[in-house]
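Inverse folding, one chain.
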């Protein structure tokens, strides 16, 4: 089977009392094994949603319910391996990000093996997001699909609405468990089994009906007390110590600088509480980060071995970063904000697109597999590539660009929010606001690239001091 398991993403979840404005936030770097994989930002309207879905990779066929909701989506541009929608917000202001590839162990796979013709990351958003009206309902639908069709890979999936944030992890081929993230908490989740302590009796957990019985029957619990799902179903490998755990460590170090942990620690906590309220800018910084101000920064002053030891969060294999925000201080029609950027995150900015629309701006929608600087995906990737050649030279330009661009986007958004109530055609109004945001973003990203070319040209090795 031509499966493509990403194994590369990083997720951040934020409860409504932990965010600066009372919104719920689910976010993820959608990374891949390839450095380039063009992405599109689209809206799937109900008449475009299939009724009989067939996966490209596994061939599984799923009959879908009637009356799907409209939703934003981020499919691949090249559909050889299927749609891979990544994430979106539906017309009921329910958000979903799928998926974070996670880890498992041989004990559970010996009991509940993967299903070759099951569902996977290619399929999940399409099968779930158009049919759910709350985050909890998303967990339950996802669980039903896993139990009926099985999966061929281990995944973590995030759901949110204006009140709740949920995190679901698949277990073996057919089992699953989910935790409601406390309102005052945050999570940084890399490519490993992340759920640790699990309370089967809590109203804030959901799982396969036979999961506890399965643990007991097959003697899966290595701990004397309680149920730690990372210990029971996950991994604690050498790869985790350099590929996964350091990303959680750095995110938690940023949100809780007062807490000292080892970046290789296998038991970094799942649920955390920050020492201040978390903003969109905070989430974007962590999802773009490369261990700044530590010896592990690939652009830093550590030894070559230190700089190469850990896998950074921001990496050349970032294809998009999405921050899905459901706001609680505005009308429902403008509550869902699909923040989005393309390419390696170190030299891009997220743009706050309204989700309650029927279409998206062309410059974010029409990427193809052919290089084209008139498209935001390819423009972002080009900027990141040039920036990587001399990070210290371009960092100040990047910092100024990010500060000024985010200020401009927020100004456009604030004006659009304030004038929304007077609009006779709300959807067209929000589509126009999104076009204005896209134009601002594309103009600023183009200007940044031009400034980098101008600055870098004076520092080329191919030069000589005499002007004659």
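Residues assigned per position:
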């Amino acid at each position: 089977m031509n499966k493509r398991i990403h194994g590369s993403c990083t997720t951040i979840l934020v409860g409504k009392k932990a965010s600066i404005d009372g919104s719920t936030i689910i976010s993820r770097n959608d990374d891949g094994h390839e450095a380039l994989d063009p992405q599109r930002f689209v809206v799937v309207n109900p008449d475009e949603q299939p009724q009989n879905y067939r996966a490209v990779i596994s061939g599984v066929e799923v009959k879908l319910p009637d009356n799907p909701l409209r939703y934003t989506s981020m499919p691949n541009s090249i559909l050889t391996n299927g749609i891979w929608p990544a994430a979106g917000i539906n017309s009921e202001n329910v958000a979903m990000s799928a998926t974070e590839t996670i880890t498992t162990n041989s004990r559970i796979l010996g009991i509940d093996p993967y299903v070759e013709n099951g569902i996977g990351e290619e399929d999940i958003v399409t099968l779930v997001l158009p049919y759910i009206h709350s985050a909890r309902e998303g967990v339950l639908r996802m669980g039903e699909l896993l139990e009926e069709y099985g999966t061929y890979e281990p995944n973590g999936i995030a759901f949110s609405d204006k009140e709740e944030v949920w995190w679901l992890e698949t277990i073996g081929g057919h089992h699953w468990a989910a935790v409601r993230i406390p309102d005052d908490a945050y999570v940084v989740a890399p490519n490993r089994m992340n759920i640790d302590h699990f309370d089967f009796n809590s109203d804030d957990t959901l799982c396969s009906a036979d999961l506890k019985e399965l643990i007991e029957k097959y003697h899966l619990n290595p701990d004397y007390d309680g149920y730690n799902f990372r210990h029971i179903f996950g991994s604690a490998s050498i790869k985790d110590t350099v590929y996964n755990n350091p990303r959680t460590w750095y995110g938690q170090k940023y949100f809780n600088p007062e807490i000292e942990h080892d970046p290789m620690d296998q038991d970094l906590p799942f649920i955390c509480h920050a020492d201040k309220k978390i903003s969109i800018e905070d989430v974007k910084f962590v999802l773009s980060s490369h261990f700044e101000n530590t010896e592990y920064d690939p652009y830093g002053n550590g030894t070559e071995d230190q700089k190469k030891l850990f896998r950074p969060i921001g990496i050349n294999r970032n294809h998009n970063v999405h921050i899905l925000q459901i706001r609680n201080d505005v009308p429902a029609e403008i509550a869902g904000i699909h923040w989005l950027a393309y390419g390696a995150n170190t030299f891009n900015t997220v743009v706050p697109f309204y989700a309650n629309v029927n279409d998206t701006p062309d410059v974010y929608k029409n990427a193809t597999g052919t290089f084209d600087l008139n498209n935001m995906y390819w423009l972002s990737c080009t900027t990141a590539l040039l920036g990587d050649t001399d990070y210290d030279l371009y960092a100040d330009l990047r910092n100024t660009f990010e500060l000024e661009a985010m200020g401009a986007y927020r100004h456009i958004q604030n004006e659009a929010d304030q004038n929304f109530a007077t609009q006779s055609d709300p959807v067209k109004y929000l589509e126009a606001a999104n076009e204005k945001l896209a134009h601002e973003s594309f103009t600023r990203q183009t200007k940044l690239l031009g400034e980098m070319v101008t600055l870098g040209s004076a520092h080329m090795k191919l030069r000589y001091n005499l002007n004659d």
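Residues 1-6 have pLDDT under 50 and may be disordered. The longest helix spans residues 426-457.
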